């Protein structure tokens, strides 16, 4: 499956100033920038930058970022599911995972997260994909936001829903381990029926023994 990536960008005005949202970006462009120290939800900022450079170099990998001049203050990633995850068992070349979305605390608000998603799906080629996202409450910055896990869940549903992502039921153990966790997905308008059926099948692996 070919993986053309159509670059797009826009400038938004936020309480933290003017920010540029752009992507998918090349690994070279990403490596030349500096990561905000607050981008540490998954690993320290310098190591996260290295990981994103590697993703950007993958044929299917897509990194959309938001920056203040040369300082990266947020990003969203897209790549094939980890081979160790159940989603990879579907063996679908048109299944991408929204692996992470993160915005540094001082730059949250002003529609930054929605802007990252909007630019992501500006590329019409994304309509050839099923894009899934596994939302786990332990990745959410509840302390900084000061809201409850349930309020945060509603915020995430609203942000993801802005680009057509919906909540889907699943028996995945990690998602089922807490009621705030959820599986969300966007099925592109050109995804074929067999792929959709395989996606729905992989959502449930527990067999009904009755």
From TrEMBL:
Name assigned to this protein: GNAT family N-acetyltransferase
Species annotation: Tumebacillus amylolyticus
Any Pfam family: Acetyltransf_1
Domain N-acetyltransferase: 37-118
First and last residue of the signal peptide: none
InterPro entries named among the record's database cross-references: AcuA, Acyl_CoA_acyltransferase, GNAT_dom
Superkingdom, natural source: Bacteria
Organism classification: Bacteria, Bacillati, Bacillota, Bacilli, Bacillales
């Amino acid at each position: 499956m070919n993986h053309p990536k159509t670059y797009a960008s826009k400038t938004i005005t936020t309480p933290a100033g003017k920010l540029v949202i752009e992507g998918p970006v090349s690994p070279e462009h990403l490596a030349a920038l500096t990561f905000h120290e607050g981008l540490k939800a998954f690993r320290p900022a310098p190591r996260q930058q290295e990981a994103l450079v590697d993703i950007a170099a993958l044929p299917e990998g897509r990194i959309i970022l938001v920056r203040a001049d040369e300082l990266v203050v947020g990003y969203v990633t897209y790549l094939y599911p980890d081979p160790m995850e159940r989603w990879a068992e579907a063996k679908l070349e048109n299944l991408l995972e929204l692996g992470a979305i993160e915005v540094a605390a001082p730059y949250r608000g002003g529609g930054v997260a929605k802007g990252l998603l909007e630019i992501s799906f500006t590329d019409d080629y994304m309509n050839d994909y099923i894009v899934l996202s596994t939302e786990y409450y332990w990745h959410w910055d509840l302390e900084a936001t000061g809201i409850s896990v349930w309020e945060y869940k509603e915020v995430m549903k609203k942000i993801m829903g802005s680009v057509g992502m919906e909540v889907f039921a699943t028996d995945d153990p990690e998602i089922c381990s807490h009621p705030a966790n959820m599986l969300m997905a966007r099925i592109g308008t050109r995804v074929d029926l067999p792929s959709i059926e395989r996606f729905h099948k992989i959502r449930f692996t527990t067999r009904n023994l009755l």
